[in-house]
Write a structure and sequence with these properties.
The chain is of the alpha/beta class. The chain has helices at 32-45, 49-56, 63-67, 80-83, 87-92, 138-145, 147-154, 165-168, 190-206, 213-222; strands at residues 2-5, 78-79, 105-109, 113-115, 120-121, 131-132, 136-137, 159-161, 176-183, 186-187, 226-231, 234-238. The protein has one domain. Strands 1, 3, 4, 8, 9, 10, 11 and 12 form an 8-stranded mixed beta sheet that branches. Strands 2-5 form a two-stranded antiparallel sheet. Strands 6-7 form a two-stranded antiparallel ribbon.
Length: 242
C-alpha cells in the first residue's frame, strides 16, 4: 500500500549548519530536471522580495519565509520527516516511527513534486497553487512530470490518498481510496488533519498491508476507528469528539 500525504505550510527551521540540497540524492531522481526548474525559478523570484510576496500570496509579515527561498540551493537540509510541522504531522509524529515503517509514505509538494520521509530538503514556502514566472502553474508542471514516475511506483498497490484537494490534481493514482472525517454527520476541517495523522500512524505501527478498499476499512476498524464505506473507494471515519 502507498499512502499519499499533503505537505504543511508550517515547517521546522533549517539546521544552523550542514550539507546543502543534493537533488540527485532525493527519491525519484527522474524528477531532478523538473525539480531544478522549479527551484531555479523560485530562487530567482525571491531576489525581489515584493514580487515574491505577491506571487506566493503572502502578507508582508511573512516576508522572512519568502526570503529564505532565495537560499534554497545553499541552505542546510533536514529530513522531510522532521521538516513538516502542521496538524497532520504533529499527530503522525513521523520522526518517532521506525524508518522501516515509513517506506509506504509519499509527501507531495509544489516545490519537490513528491518525496519520501527520509529525503533531506531545506525549509521553503511554495504551495501548489503558485504560478511561477517561468515554470507557470505548478499543478500543470507536476501533472506532466509525475505520472511516468509514480505510475510505476504505485503499480497495482492500493493507494490511500490523504492529500488535500489542491494536491490531488498533481497525480491521479489508479487504485486510490480517499477518507472523509465526520463528526455528528458533518465533515470537519481542522480535526480532519489530526484524525488522518493518527490514522496513518496506527496503520504504520500495526504493519497493516491491505490490498483492497474493504480490507483497508477492516484494518481501520480493527485499530478502533469507526469506518463506513460511502462508495467502494471512499471511506468515512466518524469521530466522537473534537
Amino acid at each position: 500500500m502507498l499512502i499519499l500525504l499533503p505537505p504543511s505550510e508550517g515547517k521546522a527551521a533549517a539546521p544552523r549548519r550542514g550539507a546543502p540540497l543534493a537533488l540527485d540524492k532525493l527519491s525519484f531522481p527522474a524528477l531532478s530536471e523538473a525539480r531544478t526548474t522549479v527551484v531555479d525559478d523560485l530562487v530567482k523570484l525571491s531576489t525581489d522580495p515584493d514580487g515574491a510576496l505577491a506571487v506566493l500570496g503572502l502578507t508582508p509579515g511573512l516576508a522572512g519565509e519568502a526570503a529564505r527561498n532565495a537560499a534554497l540551493w545553499s541552505a542546510p537540509v533536514r529530513p522531510a520527516a522532521t521538516l513538516y510541522t502542521g496538524v497532520l504531522y504533529e499527530a503522525l509524529d513521523l520522526a518517532s516511527l521506525p524508518a522501516r515503517t515509513r517506506s509506504s509514505l509519499l509527501i507531495f509538494s509544489g516545490l519537490w513534486g513528491a518525496v519520501r520521509p527520509g529525503d533531506r530538503i531545506p525549509p521553503y514556502r511554495c504551495s501548489i497553487g503558485v504560478r511561477l514566472p517561468t515554470t507557470g502553474a505548478l499543478t500543470a508542471h507536476w501533472r506532466a512530470a509525475l505520472p511516468p514516475v509514480l505510475d510505476e511506483v504505485a503499480g497495482d498497490k492500493l493507494v490511500l490518498d490523504l492529500r488535500s484537494s489542491a494536491y490531488t490534481s498533481m497525480w491521479t493514482p489508479r487504485n486510490a481510496v480517499t477518507v472523509r472525517v465526520l463528526h455528528g454527520g458533518k465533515v470537519v476541517s481542522h480535526f480532519n488533519k489530526a484524525t488522518k495523522g493518527r490514522l496513518v500512524r496506527a496503520l504504520l505501527l500495526a504493519g497493516a498491508r491491505p490490498r483492497t478498499p474493504s480490507a483497508l476499512a477492516g484494518a481501520l476498524r480493527d485499530l478502533g476507528f469507526a469506518v463506513e464505506a460511502r462508495t467502494p473507494h471512499e471511506l468515512d471515519v466518524t469521530v466522537g469528539s473534537l
